[in-house]
Every structure is written in C-alpha cells, then in structure tokens.
Amino acid sequence: MKVCILAMTFAAVLLCAASARAQTPVEKGMAVFTAQKCSLCHSVAGKGNPKGPLEDAVSKLSNEDIREWLVHPDEMREKAHAERKPAMKSFASLAKGDLDALVAYLSSLKNK
After folding, report:
1. Which of 60, 59, 51, 69 is nearest to 112 (CA)?
2. Where are the domains of the chain?
C-alpha cells in the first residue's frame, strides 16, 4: 500500500513539473521556425541566411501582417513590391496552433 501511494505521489509530482515546463507560444513558434527550416532564407540574431534578417522586417509589421505574410506570401510580396528570390512559400497548411505560435515568435523579435 505504501509503495502504491509513493508511486502515485511521484507520478503527480512529475505531472506537475511537466505542466510547469509547457512551452510558451513563443517557444513553440521558435520550434516551428526551426522545423520549417525558415533559417534557410531568413536569419534571426545573425543566425541563418544573412540575406533575410527578420528583426527589422517584423518590427514594421502588425501581428496580422505577419500572419498574412505567412499565409498569403504572394499577395503580400506584390503589395509590398518585394523582389526577394526565391519566393516565400505559404504556411497556410500549418495547424492553427503552429501558425499562431509562429506569429507569436516572429512578433517577439520586435522587442530585440
């Protein structure tokens, strides 16, 4: 009986610790940025492709504009008269949670 109670207590402590360490939207967005290999075309804090630094670009954009660039890059490129090659791919097929996290991450770069 004591072993069972001890095991249940230990499991509860582990569960609480895991919950406390849940990813924030910004951390999840950073993971999405990495998983989608965004650094092949863009850089953050000098890491990645130096031809596409994101800090200055996102500092001028609202969160909705960032989302539009991710979901409708061709329309946004035309609207902004951007000529960067290759054209940015659309992330419209990302799960909503991943897209929201990516927007949160990119938006967090404004403060750096």
Report:
1. 59
2. 24-111
pTM for this prediction: 0.77
- Domain 24-111, what fold? Cytochrome Bc1 Complex; Chain D, domain 2 (1.10.760)
Q: Tell me how far apart the 2 most distant CA atoms of the chain are, in Å.
A: 71
pLDDT digits (tens, 9 = 90+) for 86-107: 888 999 999 999 999 999 999 9
Distance CA 41, CA 52 (A): 6
Q: Angle at the Cα of 111 (from 110 to 112), degrees rounded to 5? A: 95
1, 8, 17, 86, 88 from 4: Cα distances, Å: 5, 6, 20, 60, 55
Q: Which two tokens stand for residue 48?
A: 């990645």
Count of beta carbons in the 10 Å neighbourhood of residue 78: 10
